[in-house]
Design a protein that fits this description.
Oligomer: heterodimer
Number of strands of chain A: 8
Largest sheet of chain B: 7 strands, parallel
Radius of gyration of chain B: 22 Å
Structural class of chain A: alpha+beta
Order of helices and strands of chain A: HEHEEEEEEE
Strand content of chain B: 15-25%
Structural class of chain B: alpha/beta
Distance between the termini of chain B: 88 Å
Distance between the termini of chain A: 47 Å
Shape of chain A: elongated
Largest interface: A-B, 43 and 39 residues
Strand order of the largest sheet of chain B: 4-3-5-2-6-7-8
Number of helices of chain A: 2
Order of helices and strands of chain B: EHEHEHEHEEHHEHEH
Strand content of chain A: 35-45%
Shape of chain B: globular
Helix content of chain A: 10-25%
Largest sheet of chain A: 3 strands, mixed
Chain lengths: 128, 224
């Protein structure tokens, strides 16, 4: 439900960067979406297309979304890396486990809660 | 007449960035946290399913804290209406009503404004009742020192495995309405086992808010 608000912030961020670079158009926006967020890729894309179509600088631009896997760190054993997961046999859904894959200790989430603009493809106009 | 032609061509560039859209909320939440800490207030975000008993739990905690000589305030978050807010006001405590209109969660910005209406210097604990939802509040930390997630047996035995992430982001898990588990034919052991395998380090408190059962344990889990 909050994808529309996120798409709006996304577009605002892209416009600021495009204007900084004196771009005439934006053709592609690359966003990394953390595994532990509840941002639905399809809904975000839908909202982005509606909002960006109203802004000449972004009209026709493409939103590319990449999922960023969650990472945790453990203060007990020093582990840093992927989350442990288990398969739910009834649903085939992979469920994260919030404990250290190495020692079962308590972990801090260090990656996977982001929705970050990583790259934008811009057209710059030069005149000769 | 020969007209000079302006030749336009486009130079394409990639602008590498790292702008986190959710960071805006996190930055405000950190400012909120500082205000809580500067005024020695423990703020607790109560997230949870619709109808899981968040309001009744908080009402019970408010009265338990009063017995301990501690004063609580409450921010009541709802999509619409003032039903919960009126209940909190009846306890003669500072309370503020936040109606999100259409949003399915509170965010740090709403709390930033709401706490202007709560006398932080006069209270020890601030409970924030989030909008009933096991999904969206998870993405929007409010700046509270503690986050509690509440479910009850009436929602079935599969709430934890259906919504693992919000449990992973919480400091305390509450299973409420344990007094009626037989009536609704829900085996609480199934819920407990799910919580244990997904969040083995998170304190799990069983409560019957209607009859005040388990509230003392919940306060202890909140370091109160």
């Amino acid at each position: 439900m909050h994808e529309f608000g996120i798409a709006k912030s996304l577009v605002e961020g892209v416009v600021v960067e495009a204007e900084k670079n004196h771009a005439v158009s934006v053709t592609e926006v690359l966003v990394e979406i953390g595994e532990l967020t509840f941002i639905n890729h399809e809904q975000l894309s839908f909202a982005f297309n509606i909002i960006s179509s109203e802004i000449p600088l972004l009209a026709g631009s493409k939103l590319v979304m990449e999922a960023r896997s969650a990472e945790v760190s453990c203060s007990s054993c020093g582990y840093s890396g992927s989350l442990k997961r288990f398969d739910e046999p009834q649903t085939h859904i992979i469920i994260p486990v919030f404990a250290c894959p190495s020692c079962d200790g308590k972990v801090d989430i260090i990656k996977g809660r982001e929705c970050a603009i990583k790259n934008i493809k811009l057209n710059l106009e030069d005149r000769d | 007449m020969i007209r000079q032609r302006v030749i336009c061509f486009h130079k394409k560039i990639d602008a590498g960035l790292d702008i986190d859209i959710l960071k805006v909320n996190r930055d405000i939440s950190e400012a909120n946290r500082k205000r809580f800490e500067d005024t020695d207030v423990l703020a607790v975000d109560f997230m949870g399913a619709v109808g899981s008993g968040k309001t009744l739990l908080i009402e019970g905690l408010v009265e338990l804290l009063r017995v301990k000589g501690l004063k609580a305030g409450v921010i009541a978050g709802d999509v619409t209406g003032d039903d919960d807010f009126k209940r909190y006001k009846s306890h003669d405590i500072p309370a503020f009503n936040v109606t999100t209109g259409k949003e399915c969660h509170l965010d740090a910005h709403m709390i930033e404004h709401s706490i202007d209406d709560i006398p932080l210097a006069e209270i020890d604990v601030l409970f924030i009742e989030n909008v009933g939802n096991l999904v969206c509040p998870s993405d929007f930390p409010l700046g509270t020192q503690k986050r509690v997630v509440v479910i009850s047996v009436t929602e079935g035995d599969d709430m934890v495995r259906k919504h693992p992430v919000i449990f992973g982001h919480s400091d305390v898990i509450v299973i409420n309405k344990i007094d009626i588990s037989e009536a609704v034919e829900v085996d609480t052991d199934v819920i407990i086992n799910d919580a244990r395998r997904i969040c083995p380090h998170t304190p799990l408190i069983m409560t019957d808010a209607k009859h005040g059962v388990g509230l003392d344990k919940l306060l202890t889990a909140l370091d109160l």
